Amino acid sequence: MGKYKIDVTEENCTFCLRCQLGCSDAYFKSFNQNNARIRVKTTGLDCTISFTDECRKCGICAENCFFGVLQKTSMEETV
Amino acid sequence: MNYGGFAGKVLLVDLTSKEITQEPLDMQLAVKFIGGLGLTLKLAYDNITPGAGALEPENIIAIGAGPLVGTGFPSTSRVFAVSKLPSSDTIGWCGAGGADFGCQLKNTGFDHIIIKGRADKPVFLKIIDDQAEICDADDLWGRGVEETSLDLWNRVARPAGVISIGQGGENLSTFSMAFIDRISTLGRGGLGAVFGSKNLKAILVKGSQGIQVADRKEYKRLHKELTREIRDYPYLKEWQDQGMLKSFPIVPMETYDKIKKRHVACVSCPFGCKDIVEIKDGEYKGQVICSSSAINLFTPQIYGIKDYRESIKLVSILDSFGLDFFEFFAVITFAMKLVEKGVIRKELADPEIKLDSFESMKIWATKTALRQGLGDVLAGGFKGMIQEFGEESTQYAPAMIKGIHPYAGPGSALPWSLFGTMELGQVLDPRGPHVGSGGSPTYFAKRPLDVFYKHFQRMGIPGEAVERILTAEESDESEKSLKVGTLLKYSHSWFSTLGSIGICARAQVNRFYSAELCADIYQAVTGIETSLDQLRERVDRVWTLYRLMNLRENLPRETDQPLPERWFKADGFKEYVSEKPLSPEDVRQMIEDYYAEWGWDRITGEPSPAILEKLGLV
Q1: Alpha-carbon distance B79 to B97, whole Å?
Q2: Which CATH number is correct for B418-614, 1.10.599.10, 3.50.50.60, 1.10.10.10, 1.10.3660.10?
């Protein structure tokens, strides 16, 4: 179980990729959206957001989000 | 030493010989010219054959993204293209953000691409990691920007970046643009036609390399501080909700709210001022349209298109053709006048040119993009029209500078009447009128002079220069005047700073940046020692080189050039502070002040040998 529960509101997403860049840098010391554990699959009009199996729900993606797409809640609070 | 931020290589593509080579990025040059805009200008200077026509194979397209692009620092997505532009016949920058392109270009391992020559048939350039290939584009030729971008995205899984032109560029319209990721515009001046002249339909990039920063600890500290400031900004939500309409509320917010579908942000931007809208009713019900700015979508209403849905549709048609809609309206207004005055025979203007008629404008957009009938002449812009209808026809032309319409000013699309740096910048950017480089800090708002001090400090203007910018009569210290020409030197320096590092220059973004922060973040990302003074010197080198490369192309001195008469009529421009009517002599004085502040010859605008030596440009 991860540290946080991440709530996702896809319709708010602007495709800024801040979540992916922050995630990849945190785990690979390199800004590279291909390595991110959060996946933003976009057609340019819409998107679907998912997390890879390796994702620990550390919340870095949510900390980088400015558009209210990703909201983190401490797992302790959700119990 | 391993530098951070830079991808590390330059790709050279000769479309004539089909030769593709890669070179390591010359880090000595990178240090001298910063990166992004600065380094792209330098590569253009070194690779353009002096005197080559914009549409000749000897012209090049240099493309680049700065060291911050792809790092996730807020609003760092800028991509620049530098080329000789057919409208102005000067070498100019075209800059834009974009969804993927800058980031993906860096991920392929290239900071810059230099394209020269001319393909013998339509091609697109595909760069997947370090493998570059010139590909057949027969099936893309004749298609619009959106269609082309979507097609190329379908060929490789996104994320991938696309620069594409529409039919306007293919048919060498001098006001055609290239689009980044179908939503951001490399516009004003005809870059699309340069692509078209090379038979280059598009560039597709997709990479997996990633970008590292040199000093992670310092990067994180600066990032945390800046993102906290942005989150605390009381107007953040308004900017996110209203996009560019917050700065220029061209339509009621209810209209915008009705059609707003989604905001789109360039990579790493917390504001997201690009738009996806959906027309909710009427003939175009259900159509979803992407735009660089909602302001653009509603601009045809200024020219008389009453129905906002038709206005949106018209801009989407022009976007798809890859035509600059500001210039299209300027040119079509000129044509309408020439018909009225009998210079163009009425039967040639079929259908009747009516600015307030969607049907008429739609047909003329098509005729222009495809060069049908009179559209063939219109596609040549002001230059082509004057060539066709004679020098005397210019008396009926809208305002014009270096062959391009300055769209900010009295009688233009953005009818702002105070003459600040953005307005003077339309005269003094070698590329011809563009509001991008001279905007800071006056923009579209009258600001009390007291507010300027903090912006001056932020933009890195040395204290001793402030006294030359805000001057007072000895008799009355409280009555200060603003020396717009002197200040514009620093607007251009600031634009060069942001563009070379990779930061967006839009007001809502650049207000959070200072020159000091730029020096610190550049050093943290690249590992290149950079004090504020060092950054200032490099930036001065960048813009001075830009001037030099255009003087090499015989750029006429601005003091000798006619200024638009419309600017000085009864309802023309006004002086920024006193709001007294502006005269051509006032503007000429500002031009001299601008030259002098750069240390250039006050009359000729040529950099002195001493300045060139100081900047290492001899």
Answers
A1: 6
A2: 1.10.599.10
- Residue A14 has its nearest CB partner, among B107, B181, B263, at B263
Beta carbons within 8 Å of B362's beta carbon, 6+ residues apart: B313, B314, B317
When CB atoms are compared, the residue of B159, B261, B268 closest to A16 is: B268
Q: Before B398, cis peptide (omega within 30)?
A: no
ipTM: 0.96
The answer to whether A31 contacts B208, with C-beta atoms less than 8 Å apart, is no
Query: pLDDT of A7-21, one tens digit each?
Result: 999 999 999 999 999
**Three-class DSSP category at B187:** coil
For B390-420, what is each residue's pLDDT tens digit? 999 999 999 999 999 999 999 888 888 999 9
pTM over 0.90: yes
In the stretch 3-32 of chain A, residues with CB closer than 8 A to chain B read 11, 13-18, 21-22, 24-25, 28-32
Q: Which CATH topology does B9-206 take? A: Aldehyde Ferredoxin Oxidoreductase;  A, domain 1 (3.60.9)
Amino acid at B379: A
Q: Which domains, from first to last, does chain A contain? A: 4-78 (3.30.70.20)
| pLDDT at residue B447, as a whole number | 81
What gap in Å lies between CA B344 and CA B328, rounded to an integer?
Answer: 18
